[in-house]
Amino acid sequence: MLIKWNDPWTALQSEMHSLRDEMQQVFGGLLSSSGSRRHADDISAVRILEDQTGYIIEMAMPGIAKDAIELEVDTDNQLIIKAHRKRESEDVILHRHERAFGDICHSFDLPNDVDREQIDAELRDGLLHVSVSKRPELQHRSIEVN
């Protein structure tokens, strides 16, 4: 005779997943799928490049709409990038969740050689490109010897 064995670990694991999902709702997505704490801005990989004319900041923003992104330069010469990634529909049962949602905030101390009026941003294919120009009078230039 076969007897069905109910694995107690399966029930416990299911309860833990439900508890994690409820905590994610309460704390705005600051928990990863493994349950460890992480900040929502950890989800946005950043790359910063420099050439003779300025700096380029590239930030991964998959699934974020253009109108959900804000950029500003404060009085301390910090470039602040804020965004909000919305959670998927609340009407579905979530079986696994590895994409974070919630508020993202990155700040970058700008060097003194930047032109605060020459900052442009473009969202293309889930990647935010921010171009920060150097002030023309401080850009590298070659001097010809006569």
What descriptors fit this protein?
four-stranded antiparallel beta sheet, 13% helix, Immunoglobulin-like, 146 residues, three-stranded antiparallel beta sheet, single chain, mainly beta
Describe this structure in words.
With 146 residues, the protein is mainly beta. The chain has a domain at 40-138: Immunoglobulin-like (Sandwich). It has one helix at 8-26; strands spanning 46-50, 54-60, 69-73, 78-85, 102-109, 114-124, 127-134. The longest helix is centred in the N-terminal third of the chain and has 19 residues, at 8-26. The protein is elongated. 12% of the residues are buried. Residues 29-42 have low confidence and may be disordered.
Shape: elongated
Could you tell me the radius of gyration in angstroms?
Answer: 23 Å
Assess the beta-strand content as a share of residues.
35-45%
> Cα distance, first to last residue?
102 Å
The percentage helix is 10-25%
Topology overview:
Layout lengths: L7 H19 L19 E5 L3 E7 L8 E5 L4 E8 L16 E8 L4 E11 L2 E8 L12
Antiparallel strand pairs: 1-2, 2-7, 3-4, 4-5, 6-7
Provide a compact summary of the structure.
With 146 residues, this protein is mainly beta. The protein contains 1 helix and 7 strands; from the N terminus they run H-E-E-E-E-E-E-E.
